[in-house]
Design goal:
This protein has three helices and five strands. With 148 residues, it is of the alpha+beta class. β1 and β2 form a beta hairpin.
């Protein structure tokens, strides 16, 4: 097999790998491999082919870094609406003990919940932490109304 074919195969593998990462670094290495494949038409020296590939990848990385940074950071990204659940109040549906999980209704959702103190059913709680599908709650402090 010719040297140019090895470079083309390496370039294809790197470009395909780039499609799974979206970092643009593997893309430039793939383009560098294609440049090395092109250089095989002018020289048989493997060291020069490597230098052509590395130089191409380096130049593309340096020149396109501001552009790729904008592209990667322009999207809002994944937003999990359940991140907002911390700080909301809920009603205990199934009693919670320090050593036993219970259930809490927050809005229209029912969650498994833990607490550091015993909380009876129908008490109002505040969500202090969310980890995966389990909430950590505490009793809601009663509001004191002062009348003059």
């Amino acid at each position: 097999m010719s040297a140019w074919l090895y470079w083309v195969i390496a370039g294809i593998i790197l470009v395909i790998a780039e499609m799974t990462t979206f970092t643009f670094y593997l893309l430039w290495l793939g383009v560098g491999a294609f440049a090395a494949a092109f250089s095989t038409h002018f020289t048989d020296d493997f060291l020069i082919q490597i230098l052509v590939g590395c130089f191409t990848a380096f130049v593309l990385t340096v020149l396109t870094r501001p552009l790729t940074r904008k592209v990667r950071h322009s999207a809002i990204g994944f937003y999990d609406p359940y991140q907002d659940i911390v700080g909301k109040s809920g009603i205990v549906q199934e009693a919670i003990a320090p050593d036993k999980m219970g259930q809490v209704r927050v809005g229209s959702e029912i969650w498994s919940a833990t607490a550091t103190e015993a909380i009876a059913a129908n008490e109002t709680v505040i969500v202090v932490e969310r980890s995966s599908t389990i909430l950590t709650v505490q009793k809601e402090k009663e509001k004191v109304i002062c009348q003059p």
